[in-house]
Design goal:
The structure is a homotetramer.
Chain A (H helix, E strand, L loop, with lengths): L6 E9 L8 H12 L7 E7 L4 E7 L2 H4 L2 H6 L4 E8 L13 E5 L2 E11 L2 H10 L9 H13 L4 H11 L2 E9 L2 E6 L8 E5 L2 E5 L2 H6 L3 E5 L4 E5 L5 E5 L8 E2 L1 H6 L5 E2 L2 E2 H15 L6 E4 L5 H11 L2 E2 L3 E3 L12 H11 E3 L1 H4 L3 E6 L6 H12 L4 E6 L27 H7 L4 E4 L2 H8 L6 E2 L1 H4 L1 E2 L7 E2 L2 H4 L1 H4 L9
Parallel strand pairs in A: 14-24, 17-18, 17-21, 21-22, 22-23, 25-26
Antiparallel strand pairs in A: 1-4, 1-10, 2-3, 2-4, 5-6, 6-7, 7-8, 8-12, 9-10, 9-11, 12-13, 15-16, 19-20
Helix pairs in contact in A: 4-5, 5-6, 9-10, 9-15
Family (chains A, B, C, D): In the C-terminal section; belongs to the purine/pyrimidine phosphoribosyltransferase family.
Pathway (chains A, B, C, D): Purine metabolism; IMP biosynthesis via de novo pathway; N(1)-(5-phospho-D-ribosyl)glycinamide from 5-phospho-alpha-D-ribose 1-diphosphate: step 1/2
GO molecular function (chains A, B, C, D): 4 iron, 4 sulfur cluster binding; amidophosphoribosyltransferase activity; magnesium ion binding
Chain lengths: ~475, ~475, ~475, ~475
Amino acid sequence: MINLKEECGVAGVIIHDPAPPTNIVAFKLYYALYALQHRGQDSTGIVVFDGSKPRSIKRMGLVSEAYSRDTLQDIVGYVGVGHVRNATYGTQTIENCQPFVLNFKGGTIAISHNGNLVNSTELRDELESEGRIFTTALDAEIIGLLLVKELLKQEPVDALKSVMKRIIGSYALTIMINGDLYAVRDPIGNKPICYGEIEGGYAAVSESVALDTIKGKLVRDLMPGEIIVFKKTGEVESIMTTDSSFAAHCVFEYIYLARPDSIIDGQLVYSARERIGNELAREHPAAADIISPVPDSGIAAAIGYSRESGTKYLEGLMKNRYIGRTFILPHQEMREMAVRLKMNTIGENLKDKSVVLVDDSVVRGTTSRRIIDMIKDAGAKEVHLRVASPPIVGPCYLGIDMPTRAELIATHKTIEGICAAVNADTIGYLSADGLVKAIGIDKSKLCLGCITESYPVPIPGEKCYCDKQCKMDDFVPEGEKKEE
Amino acid sequence: MINLKEECGVAGVIIHDPAPPTNIVAFKLYYALYALQHRGQDSTGIVVFDGSKPRSIKRMGLVSEAYSRDTLQDIVGYVGVGHVRNATYGTQTIENCQPFVLNFKGGTIAISHNGNLVNSTELRDELESEGRIFTTALDAEIIGLLLVKELLKQEPVDALKSVMKRIIGSYALTIMINGDLYAVRDPIGNKPICYGEIEGGYAAVSESVALDTIKGKLVRDLMPGEIIVFKKTGEVESIMTTDSSFAAHCVFEYIYLARPDSIIDGQLVYSARERIGNELAREHPAAADIISPVPDSGIAAAIGYSRESGTKYLEGLMKNRYIGRTFILPHQEMREMAVRLKMNTIGENLKDKSVVLVDDSVVRGTTSRRIIDMIKDAGAKEVHLRVASPPIVGPCYLGIDMPTRAELIATHKTIEGICAAVNADTIGYLSADGLVKAIGIDKSKLCLGCITESYPVPIPGEKCYCDKQCKMDDFVPEGEKKEE
Amino acid sequence: MINLKEECGVAGVIIHDPAPPTNIVAFKLYYALYALQHRGQDSTGIVVFDGSKPRSIKRMGLVSEAYSRDTLQDIVGYVGVGHVRNATYGTQTIENCQPFVLNFKGGTIAISHNGNLVNSTELRDELESEGRIFTTALDAEIIGLLLVKELLKQEPVDALKSVMKRIIGSYALTIMINGDLYAVRDPIGNKPICYGEIEGGYAAVSESVALDTIKGKLVRDLMPGEIIVFKKTGEVESIMTTDSSFAAHCVFEYIYLARPDSIIDGQLVYSARERIGNELAREHPAAADIISPVPDSGIAAAIGYSRESGTKYLEGLMKNRYIGRTFILPHQEMREMAVRLKMNTIGENLKDKSVVLVDDSVVRGTTSRRIIDMIKDAGAKEVHLRVASPPIVGPCYLGIDMPTRAELIATHKTIEGICAAVNADTIGYLSADGLVKAIGIDKSKLCLGCITESYPVPIPGEKCYCDKQCKMDDFVPEGEKKEE
Amino acid sequence: MINLKEECGVAGVIIHDPAPPTNIVAFKLYYALYALQHRGQDSTGIVVFDGSKPRSIKRMGLVSEAYSRDTLQDIVGYVGVGHVRNATYGTQTIENCQPFVLNFKGGTIAISHNGNLVNSTELRDELESEGRIFTTALDAEIIGLLLVKELLKQEPVDALKSVMKRIIGSYALTIMINGDLYAVRDPIGNKPICYGEIEGGYAAVSESVALDTIKGKLVRDLMPGEIIVFKKTGEVESIMTTDSSFAAHCVFEYIYLARPDSIIDGQLVYSARERIGNELAREHPAAADIISPVPDSGIAAAIGYSRESGTKYLEGLMKNRYIGRTFILPHQEMREMAVRLKMNTIGENLKDKSVVLVDDSVVRGTTSRRIIDMIKDAGAKEVHLRVASPPIVGPCYLGIDMPTRAELIATHKTIEGICAAVNADTIGYLSADGLVKAIGIDKSKLCLGCITESYPVPIPGEKCYCDKQCKMDDFVPEGEKKEE
């Protein structure tokens, strides 16, 4: 499938100045993954390498459930990669748990991937035509197979470069090849990945919070198309695979996916959300008594809206901090209870108030409707929905979990229609320009595909604005598959 | 031990207008306990009764882990009680998991208790002297044994009244006696408990959020010393066991324990915390760039401080929402990682800023120190600690998890000493009067024992201000044990 | 209920010559319980005592599942008791997991009980009338409550004597009272219990195999009505509570319950079963090609039959050694598969053969029918069923898991009728006299209640032959229950 | 490694006359694997196919632990394969859990393999040289990769034939290729595999007991080198890939591995073991009081010995039927307890007796020594060890779990030396000719490698007697791997 939803977190740790092989790498990966848990809750894995053989732990579920002190202590090694995964329905099996580990003629490779390849079907067909097999549904396996083919011909960096010419889409990768660590970012810089210094070594992670957690010091984000090699000897080498300044950073990281305390492509997510709130207040002011967020992703934007508008910030919804797996009876009352369990209204804060409700986005509209109904049930006089993103009209092909076009409310309703559908008194969406301005990155370096329906990579049936920068033809050259 | 720390949540549900015995009661208890999870994470239990026999589930751990759809579906009954428990170290065993269930001559009783009896040792000795045995470390077992003695002599309400004359301390109880549900609150109203209407019946719970979750409608808090009977026939009867207007509601529910969306004794916790922040700003203003909370318990107070002071509210700390069990290596670096995992700084929001940090309380001072160090490491210029409660100088004997007097930093350091110890630039504690004013309940109706060292119940070695209202002599009359 | 089925195993271990408190006691109990696993598979528990506080592990399931190295290592103490339980349906809950532990005025008691009290209802009523409560469905709780009442008046041995005057039925007990270990056997010696020396101490266990396993040396069986005290100082004291030579050892221990390698009341179970086979061959010879057992309980009897008859012993049925929990689809074919999974025929050994099939007993007849059908399906020409016990016509009130009288095939069918019902060509039951002779214990010292319908203790509605030896009146003295 | 120990069980089930896709196939595989549990206890898996996609369950541990009713019900399909595995130390990870499932250009393949390839290193190198990768340590992955290469060129049967020309060693395979089921046996027939009819379809399994369990009817063993195709249409086709009558059935299946109720290559294992006992009695008679087996594998041979010798059969050792995982303290006494836990002596049967002890084999001699010591401790006067196999002097390269040559006691001690080392009074090994005669299969069709050190397949450094029949050159064509 071309649009697998794969919100994931990746991490890689290498220690070049250690005592003899130790489990410190495994523990640092464990803490880093814990900090990236919001990027994937379905499965997790850690693989470490001690110079001779890989040791791994893979499990379905949360980081807190998957690892034990005992199992972590057993996996010693000076380098390793880890992964958390939020899987598309139907692929949540132990086989699809990353990192993907393979042995080949040249040794051992472990790959953690965040992103989605848009030409995975073609690559899979091509590899299968060569008689190769697949044991998982992962893009990481495609990348692994391509990489091995190249590694038989050239050095790791050149091999990675060749692979990057073949794969189209989004990818932030941490890869362990025979004891060296590689961090790789796709040429459009769609998925975030940064690296930092840690005690005696380096770490590369999806978000800077993971560095904070393991007492690392953020050095910088990887550049679009950059490969960084962290050698077992302690050397660090950067290789740029593209001379283009083109980028297409995912705006949804800022809107809702990333943790607010992360710095992504130089922008603190929290600040970007505050500025989104400022913009939203300017674009869509409302005479109201309070500004209230949909927690947690709407909090910073609501604070920003409140500050800009001068209307008081007051929480009207409270999230239950202990929600794990819940189950419900097939019964309407039970379903409503399950919603209330996750988010409750603070009645007194809402009663007889005119409320500006700040939410990060409106996708299908069903959640917004449910929340606004709850707020009105709690006695709010008016609800003015302010959305911290423009209307979502295109699906995401690069890994963000979004529904099909038909399910997106903004594809088949007017703004007024949406307002009525979600039971708001007024609705205001942030403009695309407002969003871009708030994020603080030039529009030419952002992916706005879900908003503009124009994508940075070639997708069959969709508009592409990447012709100059990332021509499909560059990636899959005419003659290339001939001889295979 | 006289001061067991027993932060717990209780719930009781009865349905008088149901179809034949159903598992709806078990599911409602499950949702109610989920909403009360913040009151206890060590163990949980549900007992339901179908008119003939009790069925129960008890497990160590969180609500999300303890129950499954299958086990809940199996426990049918029209009435039941549930419990979540935060246990004192050493008592976290399956035997001490509540509700406490007993069978006696007159039938079946299940008891859920939140609170701490200060005369438990005496009562235990007395009961043991009669040849009675204990199979748990629970006050609920003491209550159960006393109750059974009385039930052999009188009707349930009178029996409960007699028991209430014997037990001193804090208790919010939901009790199932032979198919009727009883909610009981101690005569000083120390622990919160309220009740509401639900579809076809009633529920009594520690906090109103649990009613919200099960789509109940809050009727009111129980009065100090009140017993409410919810009969299987649908009748509801209130019995007042004290004519005194004395009360001693725990202020720590408002300061940090209760959920902000709960209404306790008529006060929305969120609003009380906001007003605490207002007061704090008035009492201890600070020239600063931002007001920042220690999440989550400091958020509403920080918002209040910000609004009163006019200084901007900006979050400088971010909590990891996915923290479950973690484990650490015996290694200094690992311990610091474990702290960072739970709470991270948002560097850009703090850098070069003068920060007013609003925390709910300072107990030992160690956590405050660690947080302020982190904030200064993140580049804050100044940290002005503003504490949403007065200095804690007395232990709690009524169930709040607090250390011994010797461990309380305010018992052996001056305010200046504390300021230096926690590495703050200035420190400001809310005054007791300010706290009382903010909560909005008359001082004579609040327990301020930990702040004033004067307690509402007689504690050996401590001052008591309860002489008129709750004389120890009333409870354990000289002659009383004679005839037994 | 008067006839709870409680096949259990008990163990007690005390070490008087140890290093400081150690976990060796916990580990020895663990191994002893492993050896007694055949006596109970539903739950298990171990409690050890270090002189100040008890530490326990209790879990549903098998010994292999319930304990871990970590949990066992944590429970240190020099004395302890353990239990495995095979529970009556509906009582398989964690609350009913033994040992039953209680705290009372005089300290801590832990009780492991194998057996069934026939006056439990009366005792429960009596205790409840005194205002006492029950938190379990266990006879051990009744025993504990009675014991505590006496311990407040007299020394442990006298207290135990007094309790033994009150309880009627079967009981083998290992009891820890404040750091001393007591082993107790009911006055009719119905349930087995023996003791032996172990390194640095003593152990008392249900069957001698448990001593073998922990490298103990069997000293002897307890006598009916004997109490043996194993003091923490190393002294061992025996107290006889009855001067009668009356006994009623359960014959079913020899027929099927006990392990063949155990010695019970001086008789090796294996040898008793062999002699049963000899007798059976003499009483019910058959012209056949082979003698084949129903494994495992029929093996020794079949060997005995073969040797006596001179007909060759050849296994026709094979048990699957790996059967744990299985589950089946609600589907006839599946049910048959589940049977085959547990026991398979060895076709070639049966084909065209005339088979003497030796089974330990015929209860409902359904299992026999199923097995004989399988054997005939496998091609056997004739099946001559030889049963290693007389027809079962009475229920067991002393703890053996047997159905109600109505379900016992021998209560409503003639021998010929049973033969037809189970599809055998001929059937031969061992005579009661043959059984007694084979066991090698005088008939006056055996309980044959299920065979003769005459019981060694008074059961309402049943004949009793115990008048002289264990008058109900002795146990429940005239005046004692008057006032209730 | 050339001599991985891979004792495994395989199963395949196809139903051609079903209702729409059903979970009956999954349940039949589950029952079949339960019956084959003795062949592998480390991990298990089931894969079923419904015509479009495979669904699988894989878990570490026993069949009783790995599957639940829920998980089995979810995997519907009309065809499937299953596996139980006994893994070499270090390879017990979830990745190595079979069946091995792969997707390739032509669809989906699932492979269950029992056996060991002796040229796996060469094949792995060859495949890696082509740039292929390995994600497991399994021979099944090698077979899968070779098979896919061939399937791109030819039809499944021809592809399998080509693969069989490349792989050398032992293999019994059940393979699902795109909805058809294939059963394959290596050209020397080393590993057992048979097939039978089941309701509406067919099953192929390692041992006939698995057919018995699922109510199947054994048709016959596969011939050496045979492929049988079970088509989704119900057709069954046999393809012989060798015209040689050469075979090398593993004798250890008869000696100890297979279940006694299985029929392998036409011989009932139970009968073979009885005849082994007869032979042993003739070759090594002993004047003794009793003949006693080491359970369970020595039972049938002991019965045979007893019958032939006329000396009475009496069990002197008893196995604990409940042994699961056990753990021991690092303590000598504990280790002895762990041994006793598994096997106990029946003292009375041994005391003052002269015992013929019949064991299946003597490998290192340590277990024999421990058992004989126990028997002598129990009071046996003399122990005459009779071994149901010849001295083991060569390692197994075909998958039986045996130690290195240096660890085999018979490689460095004389018969007298062994007798002394194991503390026996006399020792008698069955002769190779006696073994062959007892099994009832011509010597030219048995693998006696571990006894004769002459192997049926070429092993570097070992003698091979296969030159005519299975020339290495046939398998690894001239030009392909010159240098090896």
